[in-house]
Every structure is written in C-alpha cells, then in structure tokens.
Records
---
Amino acid sequence: MDNKWEELYDAAKQVLKPRDVSKIIEAGGVAAAVESISGKIYVGVCVDTACTLGVCAERNAIFNMITNGEDAIKRVIAIDGDGKAIPSCGACREFMAQLMPEEYRKIEIMMDYENERIVTLGDLTPEWWI
C-alpha cells in the first residue's frame, strides 16, 4: 500500500475523539482525511445533531480543504470509532461528484484499510445524475 494511505489513516486517527459538544450535538465519532491533488492532507470529523444540520467527516474535511484554497481531491479515507475504514455515504459521494464533475471518477476511496481495498468514486457512482 502507498505510504500516503498510512499518512491519511494516521491523520484521521489523530482527530478521532468522540465527544459530546452539547446535550444534543455529538462530534468526532467518525473522522476523515482527504488528500488534495497538491498532496496536502485535510482532516474533519462528523458532527451529529438532533436534526439534519449535522455533517459527515468527509465533507467536513473537504470543507477544510476548500477553506484553505484547494478544490481537487485525490483520495479519501473515513474511519469509525474502532478505527475501521468505512465507505463514504451517498451525500458525501454526491458532494465530491459536484465538486469535481469532470474528474470525480478518479477520486480514490479507501473501503477496507486492513485488506488494502481501494475503489474509485467512479466505481461507487458510475452513473451520476448530472
């Protein structure tokens, strides 16, 4: 496996700190790391709310990337509270596709870190609606 995946995993693991932010908001139960095309790594955690205002870790990491002036993703890993890689949800896949409509199919997604199973967003989302 490419060493960059280890860096991404370690970066996500560092911010994986489940906690209650308030009585109705939890954060950090899932963490993600995104590698931009430039090679920089951006991290984010999920924020779960009592309504639909929460955000997934992947989108949070992508927002961090955008905040820092970048807008192209190379790879994504999300990990759950046990440190296991989990696939991006439909909303995150949709967001990545809208962010990179011409290139989204090339984004690499870590599906299973232990078994080094990587797929592209194009494999997960072959016929995007737009």
Note: The chain has four helices and six strands.
---
Amino acid sequence: MRATTMLCLAGAVGLISGAAQYAYSQSPYVPAAVFCAAGGPTPCATLPAYIGADPMLGNAIGYNGIVAAPPTSAATDSQTPFDNMSWQSFVGLNWMSGAESAPAAKGLALGGSRVWQGWAKVNQVFGNAPVQASCANPSGLPVISIGSDGNGNPSQKNDDYYQASTDVPLIDINGNWTLFERRLNVAEIAYLAAPGGNPLNTLLTVAGQNRFVQGGGTVAFAASSTDPLGARGAMELKIAWRILGATDTAARYITENALLTVAPDLVSGNQPICAAVTLGMVGMHIIQRNPDYAPNAALKPEWIWSTFEHTGNAPLAASACDPAAPVGCVNLNQPSCGAAAAGAAASSYFTPASSAATNTAPTASTTGPGFIWNPSPPYAKAYVQPMTVAGQTVYVGPQVVRCWQIYGLTAQLNAQWQAALATAGSPLANYVLIGTQWGASLDGRTAPYPNDAVPGLLSNATLETYIQNNAQPTASGGVGSCIGCHSAATLADGTTPSDFSFLPGLASPSPARLDFAR
C-alpha cells in the first residue's frame, strides 16, 4: 500500500499557541515527554508494548484517577505514562515503513507507506460486503471501499461513512462525508483465527464462534508484555479521513492518495462512484490490550485507549467541561454542548460565519438510503447548505465543537511532543492527543460517569461527534466513553462478550449495527 505524505514546516510554526485553544488548568508540576520507549532525546519508531513506570497504579485503595488535586510530581502523576505511550504509539505507527532505523527527520518526513498501512484491514480478515463498486485501479492506489448490504444500507465489513454508536455520518465544510477505516495487528488476527490455539473455534466465522461458545470459551485477546520493549498484544486502529479540496493545505496532514469506491445502491442515480481522491487524516483511535499485572493493581485489563485529532478539526465549546472536575459539567447527556468559544476560527468542521447548531446530527432521508451519496463532490450535497465566506464556497451542515477540555497535564505534554515533531519537520506536529483512557479500580464513584474509566468520558470529535457528553446511552447514541461503549461488544450471537472488541461481530455475513439508544 502506498501513501503520499507532504510536509509542512510552516504549518507547525505557532502550533503550540494554537494548541492553547484547549483550555486547561495550569499546575506547578510539568510532566516530561518520553520521546522514545527505547530511550533517547528524540521521537523514534519503537512501538511500545506497555506504559513506563507509574507508581500511582499500585494504589488500589484511595485512588481517584485524575479527579483529585493536581499531581505535584511524577510520583503522583498517573496519567502521563499513559499519554507518553499514546504519543510513542502514534509516532511509531505513522513512521515510514522500511525507514524504522532512520532519524525522525527522515522517518517522519519521507513519502511512502506508513507502518500502520501494512496492517490488515477488517475486510481482509472477515471478508467483503455483499455489494461493492467495481472500479478499475490501474495506478494501484489504496482503496477506500464503501460497500452495502444490497438494500441501500452501508455495510460495516469494509470502510464506512457512518460513525459507530450513532450510525450517522459527519460532514466537513467541503460538503463531503468523513470516511473511516479499521485495521488490526497480527497478534489480534492470530487470536481471532485460533483462540487458545484451536482453529476449529475460530472467531472469524459464525460457526467457529458457536463452537467456541458451546465449549465454554471466554474471549480474551492476547495481552502485551509488562515491559514497554516487550511483545505487543492485540491492537486495533480506527482512522478518520476527510477528502481534501483545492483550498486545503495538504502539507498539514498525514495524507493518502486513494481510490474511493462507493456501492451503486448508496449513490443517487444508482451508479457506482470510482474517484481518485487525496485524503487527509483527521482522527485516529489506537487501542492496545494490556495485561492483568499485580504491581499495577489500579489498572484493569480493559485495553488502553488513545485518541488523536488534527488541530484544525473543530474549536472548543464555550462551555467545555473539565475532565478533572467532571461533576460540574452542565451539558451531560445532551447532543450539543452549545456554541463555540468566542473568536473560534474556521476549521474543517466549523465556520464562524454560520449560526447552525453544533453537534446536531444531519437528518436522514425518508426514502431510499438514509444518507445518500451525490455522484460527484460535494458528496453530501443533499444535507448541506452552500455559503460564501471570504469569496469561497463552504458547505454548512451541523457545526462541530469539542465538548471537553484536554486534561491539563496532557495539554502540557502535547506541547512538548508537537515541538519535537515540528523540529523533525513532520506533519504529525499538527495533531493533538485528546486523551488516553484506561480501565481503573477507583476508590469511590464520580456519578454519573462510568466507574472504571479514567477519564470518565473520552471521545474523538471526528469519530464520536454526537455523543461526547453521553454519560449513559441516549436517543443520540451510546456512551461517550471508549470503555463504556466497547463494554457492550459481543460475538456475532449478540450476547457473548467479546473482550471490548466489536470486530468479532463482523463474522456475520450482514453484521447488525448496535442500537445503543434502546
């Protein structure tokens, strides 16, 4: 798989001040970036298997996560080891494949395929949708395939344009749908193919899953080593892309030249879409299966969840909540968290010239596909309104704002990582860690948030736009928490827990989309 990546030194200039749009409380203690799990003063290609030393995790009693007084030293800072692991993973995954031994200035700045682009896509593991567009691809471009079930419904077995949990798309200011792809590593594939070493109980087919359940099996994906430089466990990725237009600065993004294909029954006029596009990454989820490890008693074996966004996605809401003081959040269980903060700049999913509501899902069509593709850009034409801003046409759908501030120490760490990546000349300097969530044994519950997650809620504005404030399932969708949402994951039978992964459900020929609002 090939990717074209463009650099933007100018785009990285001033990025630290740009990151200040995410409000946070200053602390006298400043966390230290650990740029490489293998050691060294600069970012490297090493993918960590586990967090570094975290003394707070030994405190199973009296431990309150980040809802407490700010840490005063590394010894009382539980979050930064997770956040450094997140950044190390994000950088290592986006290193150029085959250039892992090169310094950051080359490994993060060369054109070519990224490490994660060598991982399998879900359709390569579970098979394709019943209907796909048949498109010639003489240039051998990587393909983003939006398949269908043959009845006008997008299938989850290939790439997607429906967000998980809400089954509603996201539209950018170019009037195009945001696109999503999922990948998994070899450790996860090996377990899916033969859980417990038994290929007869494969989780890649419904029949194998039935045998697994009948034999009393419990899904438990391969966990990582407890050594950051040890063997990695199961990992899954979810990437959000937007189609870049003529006015977008491609050099500010991780980009991919791709062939976009869309099944004909999802397109107005019932003709397939076969279009060469330049995609810009706007979001990435990284999840890694961690072990049950006695010295870290406060850390549950419920995966480690990292989520990144492009800094140009969307502004912070004026009433954005603080993850370190969640009890005072005024917008819980509301789809919108109100207007953007004063002075918010135009971004990929927001224009200050519009008064449209924020984080309100587009309205589905009442006939045919709920969200039908226009045959040519703007692909979401039926769901947006054109507007002229500064002599350019933008397409206004629901405006997007971020509902939660970035945790203060995470924001400080982000600034250090962004500066190092800007020095390396990498477009990764234009991305920000929104947060790292992990399952925790907390002493006491911060109602009404999920009891076993730190922070209690964590969402990506491009991947979970409409549920950022959901402390419980609502009419808008599921819980705005990685762990809270994925705790509902099951095998294809809809009842057997699948260890926080929704991927085994893809074994079904027509996997059902979960209705979290029921």
Note: Residues 74-360+372-506 form one domain.
